[in-house]
């Protein structure tokens, strides 16, 4: 299962995702069976087109039994999220507004 969640993206990205995945709700896309090659191609298009976006974010996640928590995540945009494996689970951390790493 691959899921993509978008926030404040333009019509170009929304249209592309809707042509590749099922739009379950506004900005939420899913595909039950997608090959890693297709997933990587979709992500490379999103990375390329994301440079034209402002105040937007995209998150892609999929089942990955080889990592703690059993899923992998890629993120474009703000807020940057750091994924930390802790005791066999993955925690998502965010830097508070106004602070630097």
Task: Output the keywords.
single chain, 101 residues, alpha+beta, five-stranded antiparallel beta sheet, two-stranded antiparallel ribbon
Structural overview:
The structure is a single chain. Helix content is 25%, strand content 40%. By secondary structure, it is an alpha+beta fold. Helix 1 runs antiparallel to helix 2 (36-50). The protein is globular and about 40 Å long. The model has no long low-confidence stretch (mean pLDDT 88).
What is the topology?
Layout: E1 2-7, H1 11-20, E2 22-25, E3 28-31, H2 36-50, E4 57-63, E5 71-77, E6 81-86, E7 89-94
Antiparallel strand pairs: 1-3, 1-4, 2-3, 4-5, 6-7
Helix pairs in contact: 1-2
Percent helix: 10-25%
Strand percentage, roughly?
Answer: 35-45%
Structural category = alpha+beta
What is the alpha-carbon Rg in Å?
14 Å
Strand order of the largest sheet: 2-3-1-4-5
Q: Name the average pLDDT.
A: 88
Pattern of helices and strands: EHEEHEEEE
Q: How many DSSP helices?
A: 2
Number of strands: 7
Unreliable residue stretches: none
Task: Give the N-to-C terminal Cα separation.
Answer: 32 Å
Broad shape: globular
């Amino acid at each position: 299962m691959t899921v993509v969640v978008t926030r404040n993206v333009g019509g170009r990205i929304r249209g592309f995702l809707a042509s590749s995945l099922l739009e379950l709700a506004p900005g939420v896309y899913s595909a039950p069976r997608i090959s890693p090659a297709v997933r990587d191609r979709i992500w490379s298009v999103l990375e390329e087109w994301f440079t034209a976006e402002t105040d937007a974010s995209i998150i892609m996640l999929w089942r990955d039994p080889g990592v703690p928590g059993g899923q992998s995540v890629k993120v474009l945009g703000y807020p940057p999220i750091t994924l930390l494996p802790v005791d066999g689970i993955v925690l998502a951390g965010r830097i508070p507004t106004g602070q630097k790493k």
